[in-house]
């Protein structure tokens, strides 16, 4: 692609620039940083260099393979969600956006790297946020109701979890917010965060994201808010959840009184049906932990507080999830799970490290609508666990 081969259309002049103007604190903190533009290429030329790279080094620059970046740019252009502007192609706009998410790059660093003014960077990042989050329904879809092969092919899980379609977890993402608005976002670790609900299938694709809720909200409360906003579980199907959620027919939790994680059980030898259920539940539910770890590896911006307005900070997890699913969908069939991504380091801009909750330790009975379903959830769990234990005992003889 020739960097000069751009449509000579006028850029919009009515963008709300204050939407992306950083606080003075941020400008002061980044003003002393060394320019990061060490390449001999301009931003447009650098994008061309990445897209035409035949040495396999493109992924390390963006956390996205060059061919996926090109396909996604073509897709956005065809949907008229982004367009070439005078001096900035769609490819470069997406490149800026991925660069920001994958490196937690400041606007100063992006300005240095792409050789555009901060005003231009602001405008195109805003356009990318709007375009990518508008694709949530298209790329973050409900999972299949068919039993996944990872369950049906493994005697530990099938047929016991045949109606399981995925797993859910709550993830805290650091935020920056004014002091007078901060109280609801202060979590149990006394840091500021938003509590994001993530649901995934067993291919490590995210099937739902609910972001923007205060860090003080419980995982169960965020889940119920997602249900109230349209998150549906098909009849007779369920997701696996941890002890921070109510145990219901749609959201199957482990037994509270029994050891749960593998390391909690002596030699992984369960002593009763509750421990056996918890052991296998934990191993199967580990898919959401792997998917979340992969998401954060690809987009380290989720590990630090940013300086956007709170409405924009709430969009960051949703945008990352959309891009994650697009990248997952373009992977080759012979890729070995997610190991390839974990073997490549990505330098990121440092920010103040904060301590975040890893999830609720126990369900606090704070959602009455879920409490009313617990007896049915307990009956389903007992049925699965006791059948599992009967077969386990028979096979041990």
UniProtKB/TrEMBL annotation:
Keyword Metal-binding appears in the UniProt entry: yes
* Entry keywords, A to Z: Hydrolase, Metal-binding, Nuclease, Nucleus
Q: Has UniProt tagged this entry with the keyword Lipoprotein?
A: no
Cofactor entry: a divalent metal cation
**CC annotations in GO:** nucleus
| Localization, UniProt | Nucleus
A Pfam family assignment: DDE_Tnp_4
One molecular function GO term is: metal ion binding
Query: The DDE Tnp4 domain covers which part of the protein?
Result: 168-325
User: In which domain of life is the source organism classified?
Assistant: Eukaryota
Per the database record, which ranges form the DUF8040 domain? 38-133
The family annotation for this protein states: Belongs to the HARBI1 family.
Listed name of the protein: Uncharacterized protein
Q: Which gene encodes it?
A: LOC127764071
